[in-house]
Design brief:
By secondary structure, the chain is of the alpha+beta class. The chain contains 21 helices and 23 strands.
């Protein structure tokens, strides 16, 4: 039976690989390039149900970047249509309801009829768990000397034509994704579509691949390539159309504040311009370029950037972006002038003290003091560090001052009591005691900061720390590992959380520097590359992972990391001294 990679045409082309990706909620994404069915299946088995598992529609060149760009794609060999349910902004990032999926069915029929009436083959259509997709095979076109910008514009015109002639317009209940890049990825068949969920918006599994034969459509390729487009068609890098919509949606699923700022929420900032600067800072941090940021700023509901642009003051947008770039480039470099006025709850005392000394002209008036914070009235236009990341250093006071503000995962951990875990079939529920209340978490919610923020409201706890910093991410993963290690099992069935623990361990190891010489290896915490393996000293492993695996015996650690270890720990001599070491597969060969 035909495999999915064979259907995509990746196995028939020379010098190419299939890019596989996994996106966790609030965790570092993973990617690998494979050229075997074994690698494909292992990736699926490893990440299914804990992350969004994706596969590239078109093959990438050998040696391409892990998270590939358009220029890394070797051939255009499939066209792609993605039909999703139309949802309000409040439900962005959530799955569709059964009723919303039902409303898509007439449009599925319309698209199939449109393809047939134009003499095109129907390709492969299936349900993705959140909508429907079509993969339309075409004869492979090598992209070495192709004008990608112009061909992408033709692909967009093709999809716009389908949407227009099938009546897929705003308010109809359906949305045809207009993403037209070549690096497009799609959900791996048979994997769970992992999104935010409610009782009526559950996470569903994508259909298993039905093993159909690849049937290329020359007529479809010719039709798209002959589409007429004007010279002023936006380049594929236009933010709302290419960079890319799918990537932006992934970021908003894991970064709640980014989603809110894009939706027009001020997020505690005192003015629209301040909120737009915060948005520009986040987009800059995530690697968006000036054109993409400008495009997103003017499309924010109630956008001041749009108003300024319409009034002929485009310099407002340029200035905002320049400020964001300067800030992100150096948190202690060139400063951005911003007005701060109002009451703020200071939860980073040391940084606040330094800032107060740095800006003596700013008026500070102490209002009250709690066990965990100070409330100050601030009046000034130079207190810029607080202005940029307000929610991290000094969030607005929005309650009666009785809430506990938690400034680090370690502090949060001190409020966590007994944990019980029950497993019934596929569902694992953690019941965690926090401040004399019981909070429930599913296994996928344990690493989701947004889920914790929402749950802790009932405990009158406010989270206020920045997981972009390695130290905070490490202590957060330590806290989750502690919960996994110490939970009391009250349902007699084997638990399946080892994969999550192993991922936490490996994410920490991936950050260790890799060296080639014995000297560098024995003198500091390093990974030695030798004979196609990575060698890690036992002392380094204990130092880096001690908190995570503090309750695990040596045999348990070996079992936990069995998919990553080449051989058991052993004594080896380096520079005349014996060391106890572990032998790991190279990170890029894990699958």
């Amino acid at each position: 039976m035909t495999t999915f990679r064979e259907f995509l045409g990746h196995t028939q082309l020379p010098g190419v690989r299939t890019c596989l990706q996994a996106f966790y909620p609030n965790m570092q994404p993973a990617a690998v390039h494979v050229d075997t069915e074994e690698g494909y299946e292992r990736w699926k088995e490893r990440y299914n149900h804990t992350a969004q598992v994706y596969v590239s529609i078109n093959p990438v060149r050998e040696g391409a970047r892990k998270f590939h760009k358009d220029e890394d794609v070797a051939y255009w060999c499939n066209e792609y249509l993605d039909l999703d349910a139309e949802k309000s902004r409040d439900w962005k990032g959530y799955n569709a309801t059964d009723a919303e999926l039902e409303r898509l069915k007439p449009f599925v029929e319309k698209i199939n009829n449109w393809l047939t009436e134009h003499g095109f083959k129907l390709g492969y259509c299936d349900m993705t768990g959140n909508g429907y997709r079509w993969i339309l095979p075409i004869p492979p076109l090598k992209l070495d000397d192709v004008d990608l910008k112009r061909l992408a514009a033709k692909k967009k015109a093709f999809k716009d034509k389908i949407a227009r002639e099938c009546g897929i317009v705003e308010g109809c209940g359906a949305h045809l994704d207009s993403v037209f890049d070549f690096k497009r990825i799609t959900g791996m068949p048979g994997t769970e579509n992992v999104k935010k969920q409610t009782d009526d918006r559950p996470c569903r599994d994508r259909e298993e691949f039905r093993g159909v034969e690849r049937d290329e459509d020359q007529k479809l390729r010719d039709y798209i390539m002959l589409m007429e487009v004007t010279e002023d068609v936006p380049a594929p890098s236009a933010a709302t159309q290419h960079r890319d919509v799918q990537e932006l949606e992934k970021l908003t699923e894991s970064d709640e504040k980014l989603r809110q700022l894009l939706d027009g929420d001020l997020c505690g900032h005192v003015s629209r311009s301040e909120a737009e600067l915060a948005l520009a800072c986040k987009l800059t941090y995530y690697g968006f370029n000036d054109t993409e940021i400008a495009d997103l700023l003017v499309n924010v509901p109630g956008s001041k950037a749009a108003e300024k642009q319409a009034a002929g003051h485009a310099e407002y947008i340029t200035d905002t972006i320049n400020k964001a770039v300067a800030f992100v480039s150096s948190r202690r470099g060139k400063k951005v002038r911003k007005e701060i006025k109002g009451e703020y709850e200071i939860i980073n005392f040391e940084q606040f003290r330094k800032l107060a000394a740095r800006y003596p002209d700013t008026k500070l008036e102490k209002i009250r003091e709690t066990e965990t914070s100070l409330v100050y009235r601030i009046d000034g236009d130079d207190f810029v560090d607080i202005a940029i990341d307000l929610e991290i250093i000094a969030p607005h006071v929005e309650d009666d001052g009785t809430a506990i503000v938690v400034t680090s995962p370690d502090v949060l951990r001190s409020y966590i009591g007994k944990t019980e875990v029950r497993k019934d079939g596929a569902d694992t529920i953690y019941y965690i005691e926090i401040r004399e209340k019981i909070v429930e978490f599913g296994i996928k919610e344990l690493m989701d900061v947004t889920a914790w923020r929402d749950a802790l409201i009932q405990c009158n706890i406010v989270l206020s720390f920045d997981l972009r910093k390695h130290s905070a991410r490490d202590t957060w993963s330590d806290m989750v590992a502690h919960i996994l290690n110490t939970a009391e099992v009250t349902w007699e069935e084997e638990l399946a959380e080892d994969d999550l623990l192993a991922d936490i361990v490996m994410s920490r190891l991936h950050r260790l520097p890799v060296v080639l010489e014995d000297d560098d290896f024995v003198n500091a915490r390093r990974v030695l590359e030798r004979d196609g393996m990575y060698i890690i000293a036992t002392t380094t492993l204990e130092d880096v992972l001690g908190q995570i695996l503090q309750h695990k015996r040596l045999a348990e650690i070996r079992r936990l990391l069995k998919d990553y270890i080449v051989q058991n720990s052993a004594q080896r001599r380096f520079k005349g001294k014996k060391f106890s070491v572990w032998f790991f597969k190279k990170w890029d060969e894990e699958v």
